[in-house]
Amino acid sequence: MGGPNTSMTDRVRALVAAHRGDRGALLPILHRIQAEFGYVDQEVVPVLAAELNLSRADVHGVITFYTDFRSEPAGRVVVKLCRAEACQSVGAEQLVAHAEQALGIKLGQTTPDGSVTLEQVFCLGNCALGPAAQIDERVVGRLSPSRLDALLAAEARMA
């Protein structure tokens, strides 16, 4: 992927400047970077470390610890399948297996065409309607393999 472009580096420095006086500024800055660019390019790690007087290892550790941060762009549609106990008890693992097979990817991956990123979460607060998922920003429940396929097909038509 190479280094970040100058505008990304400049934007990261501007975000750091906006949060420089904040205690624990790294997390809000990372969230802003993710919101703006869709991911946190690993090439901005040294920039953040230098600007915030942190080690590269500290910055990298925070990025990799929190599952919300991506190190590469997500697909056009992000599907987060709930794997918490309540959803597991009503078929979440079978839904995960179906999604992986249907999309040809594993959890944490994006389809080669960049259309779908498949992720796992451990509770969406929709326990009574499991198995549940979040498709982009919309939480859906009572998913079956066929309903998931239909929702993904509808998303593909809208893209």
TrEMBL record:
Q: Which InterPro entries match?
A: NADP_DH_HndA-like (IPR028431), NuoE-like (IPR002023), NuoE_N (IPR041921), Thioredoxin-like_sf (IPR036249)
- UniProt key word Chloroplast: no
Citing just one GO molecular function, the answer is: 2 iron, 2 sulfur cluster binding
| UniProt entry keywords in alphabetical sequence | 2Fe-2S, Iron, Iron-sulfur, Metal-binding
Q: Name one Pfam family in it.
A: 2Fe-2S_thioredx
**What are the binding positions for [2Fe-2S] cluster in this chain?**
C82, C87, C123, C127
Describe cofactor binding as the record notes it: Binds 1 [2Fe-2S] cluster.
| Required cofactor names | [2Fe-2S] cluster
Q: Which family does it belong to?
A: Belongs to the complex I 24 kDa subunit family.
Q: Can you name this protein?
A: Formate dehydrogenase subunit gamma
